[in-house]
Amino acid sequence: MSTTQQDARPQPAAEPPEAGGRWVAFGLANLVVVIVLSVGSWYLLADPDLSPWSFYPLPFNAALFWAILFVVFIGFNAEFAGFDRLRQPWRGLAIAGSTAVFSVAVTWVLGEGLGHIDPDFAVGRDGGLGWFTGALFVLFGFSTFVMVVLNWGHWPWPQLGLRQPAVGMAEIAAVAGPTMLIYVVFGLPSVSLSSGVDPLMSVDTVLGLFYSFIVAVILTGQTLDNWPWRLAGSPARVALASTVGNIVLGAIFYLVAIPAITALFGSLTADALGDVIHQYPAQLGVCWAFWMILWANAFGNRPTSLGTPANLVIRFLITLALAVATFVFYYRFAAEHILHEPAAGPGIAGNALGFIDWMVLWTLIYVVGFESLGLRRRLQPT
After folding, report:
1. How many helices (H) and strands (E) does the chain have?
2. Is the pLDDT reported for residue 381 higher than 60?
3. Separation of alpha carbons 36 and 41, rounded Å
4. Where are the transmembrane segments (predicted)?
């Protein structure tokens, strides 16, 4: 994998095919593989009807969130340092294996370990809320640990003379503290059993608002090539501008998403959801995150040759349109009839923060970790 300070996100080792429409075929082939891997493994591990285990929705979702964060650590922050010395398929297998071990281990330690000390994390809480309490940290980590790569370009560590993996280790250590503080202030009180804790936000608002910040980070840092924050000038100014700007942009997305989702679902469903609808910007946001990640890594983040304004606007519109279509298809049909998830309200079923995040993980594992194994040689022009 090749990354730079200006473009620090994980990318395939070689760019997708450029000749003719092969980049479209390459992207679609990757999409098919990701869907097959996601649905097949879902039936095995999480499907409420078909899986031999009772992992749905928790602790499956908890381990899933930690798995994605681990890929962020090793792929975004550390740029796959160490893993990049391995040839395929060993590189992909090492990434997938270490991700599985980390996610299951952390989930188990928080639930079965910390849960015996702090009842907030206890696995016996109704609805698996103890598993969720531990994994809620990841919601905030998705924005902070990713932002310092996509928007900050790893600043200030390269400027201080560090190289990978020292850059990634320093970055993770430095960001862990502020992320934990945000979790303790906003996240933990919203799910705590303590009667003395007065949450600043409901858990639904926490989910919806803070995932909206993640959308802003990925949108600006990846889809829009860090525009407009890159106009700020020095790395320090870009870091400051992106931090403030993503908070503002994320809040705008959150406020716009709620009436948009109400229109997509219809008033009957929206009224039945009540205050729970405040978490649905996260559900729409994860659909957009999936397409922005797949578009960058499987479709080459095209267009790239129409001039900056046209490139950015078209990417924005394509990924957003695909996200809305995916959101409606998932909630209105796929969650119930393909994935066998329970109803979430009148005419809708499932929770996109489960299966769509599962597709995000498989995108990172297969397209980035395995470098689209089996597709590049067949679809790249000779």
Report:
1. 14, 2
2. no
3. 8
4. 23-46, 58-78, 90-111, 131-153, 165-186, 206-224, 244-268, 280-300, 312-331, 343-368
Distances 347 to 264, 269, 330, 331, 355 between C-alpha atoms, Å: 11, 7, 11, 8, 18
- Distance, in Å, from the CA atom of 46 to the CA atom of 49, rounded to the nearest integer, reads 9
Share of the chain above pLDDT 70, in %: 93
| Sequence letter at residue 354 | G
- Using the structure block, give the residue that is written with the tokens 């450029």: 18
| Tokens found for residue 103 | 């996610």
Tokens of 130: 């103890």
User: For residue 345, which phi and psi values (nearest 5 degrees)?
Assistant: 175, 175
Residue 348: strand, helix, or coil: strand
Neighbours of 189 (CB within 10 A): 19
Query: Distances in Å between the alpha carbon of 229 and those of 95, 268, 272, 301?
Result: 32, 40, 40, 19
Q: How far is residue 113's CA from residue 107's CA, in Å, rounded to a whole number?
A: 9
284 Rama class: left (phi>0) / alpha (psi -120 to 50) / beta: alpha
d(CA 217, CA 171): 17
The one-letter amino acid at 177: G
More confident residue, 206 or 377: 206
E strands, the chain, in order: 343-345, 348-349
Could you give the C-alpha distances from 375 to 97, 146, 288, 301, in angstroms and in order? 22, 28, 24, 18
Q: Is the separation of the CB atoms in 322 and 247 below 8 Å? A: no
Residue with tokens 């405040």: 278
Please give the mean pLDDT across all residues of the chain.
93
pLDDT grade, residue 376 (50/70/90)?
Answer: confident
Res 13 pLDDT > 70: no
- How many Cα atoms within 13 Å fall on the side-chain side of residue 14? 13
Task: Express each pLDDT in 346-371 by its tens digit.
Answer: 999 999 999 999 999 999 999 999 99
pLDDT digits (tens, 9 = 90+) for 245-258: 999 999 999 999 99
